[in-house]
Design brief:
Radius of gyration: 30 Å
Number of helices: 16
CATH topology of the largest domain: Dna Topoisomerase Vi A Subunit, Chain: A, domain 2
Structural class: alpha/beta
Largest sheet: 6 strands, mixed
Strand order of the largest sheet: 9-6-12-11-13-14
Distance between the termini: 77 Å
Order of helices and strands: HHEHEEHHHHEHHHEEEEEEEHEHEHEHHH
Helix content: 40-55%
Length: 405
């Protein structure tokens, strides 16, 4: 018997068996699970070359031996007895031995084990998108009884994924460069880049955003190739230094934010966070104003900056946020209100701007509209409902760069 052909044939049959509806229900199929070897010129097993005497003979002998061990059944082509095999099927009376022969675990047993792993991980994390990924994957496994492309069948690879997502979820995690993150998480400075980065990005594209670049997605959770610059301009004192001397702005690098002692003078009347970099540089500071580049969904380091600003804000100072008039812009406003300061107000994010810059508005899809409707359910955005309703009724959104025209 040729072990190579035995493993290949059994694995193909077991793959086909595990795709049946009966397998998913925990039952045996009513019909044979078979492979056509040579049937009127059609085949499910292209390696079976009837014109290659050596290959055909080796496979014939292997299938015959497998039948004697009750692993498979088969039949010859009519008129080609002991010469050409027509089809081969799985012998359901000896399934356990079939799995053992190819050193393979039943996908049902594997799925059961992975579901238990996911249940444990769901309890261990708090980050919404990680919980959503685990929960949807668990539902998929329980419905389909197979891993598909969602998780690796290799236990060590799954363990690395769980370790990475727990590390990202931990409260102590702020911002790290890729190599340092990899060293701290895996004990190997190159493991993230060489093995885990594509997996993390794949999950984040589905559960965080499909629109952000790879670098933006990673920066959002605090992983970057280099320290992240946190950009500001205006009235602020940092570690005893009056930063007003930098009239065009300055930056604090993410790895210095924890040691930054921030004082906002009592004369400051307004803090303004601006989503888009072009608008941040184009905006002309008023007197007694502090302007901060917000960017997209902010990173842990930028969140720490915002927390320090909120702690230092003078009693008579108002915080405003200027973002796109779209799903992302209002989501960011909601996040700042939820995580940093509930009194943050929208700046130039109203019906008036949509009407003034109507020529620059853009349409959106039904799926986008459904997400926008869900945003309306957020009580913290109750003062923005007129604008969101206008967007939904007219199917328009506006990027803040349009206001620079």
């Amino acid at each position: 018997m040729n072990e190579h052909w035995q493993k290949e044939i059994l694995n193909l049959l077991l793959d086909k068996y595990e795709r049946t509806a009966a397998f998913q229900k925990g039952e045996l199929p009513d019909r044979r699970v078979l492979l056509r070897f040579y049937d009127s010129g059609k085949t499910d097993f292209s390696a079976y070359d009837i014109d290659d005497h050596v290959v055909r003979t080796a496979i014939n002998e292997t299938v015959t031996a497998m039948k004697s061990e009750k692993l498979v059944g088969f039949e010859w082509m009519r008129g080609e007895q002991n010469h050409i095999i027509k089809r081969v099927w799985l012998d359901f009376s000896n399934l356990d031995k079939a799995y053992q022969t190819v050193n393979r675990q039943s996908s049902k047993l594997l799925v059961t084990a992975v579901v238990r792993e996911l249940e444990h991980e769901i309890e261990a994390v708090n980050t919404d998108w990680i919980v959503a990924f685990y929960s949807e994957t668990k539902d998929y496994l329980e419905t389909k009884c197979r891993l598909g492309s969602r998780l690796s069948a290799d236990k060590a690879e799954r363990a690395d994924l769980y370790r990475m997502l727990r590390f990202i979820d931990s409260e102590s995690f702020t911002s790290l460069t890729e190599r340092i993150f990899s060293e701290k998480c895996f004990g190997d400075s190159k493991a993230f880049e060489t093995r885990m980065k594509p997996t993390l990005l794949s999950v984040m594209r589905k559960y965080v955003s499909r629109e952000l670049t790879d670098a933006e997605l990673l920066q959002m959770i605090g992983i970057s190739r280099y320290p992240e610059p946190l950009e500001l301009r205006g009235e602020i004192i940092i570690n005893g230094n009056d930063m007003r001397v930098f009239r065009n702005g300055f930056c604090i690098y993410s790895n210095d934010i924890e040691s930054a002692d921030i004082i906002i003078p009592k004369t400051v009347e307004r803090i303004l966070t601006i989503e888009n970099r072009a608008n941040f540089f184009a905006y002309q500071n008023a007197e007694n104003e502090l302007v901060v580049y917000h960017g997209g969904q902010y990173s842990p380091a930028k969140r720490r900056l915002f927390e320090k600003l909120a702690a230092a804000i003078p009693a008579d100072c108002q915080w405003y946020h200027w973002g796109d008039i779209d799903l992302g812009g209002f989501s960011m406003l909601l996040r700042v209100r939820t995580e940093i300061l509930p009194t943050v107000q929208p700046y130039r994010m109203s019906v008036a701007e949509l009407q003034t810059y109507q020529a620059y508005t853009q349409p959106f899809s039904k799926d986008y509209a459904e997400k926008l409707k869900k945003l309306k359910e957020q009580e913290r955005l109750s003062d923005c409902l007129d604008c969101i309703d206008y967007m939904l009724n007219n199917k328009v959104r506006l990027e803040q760069e349009a206001m620079l025209t």
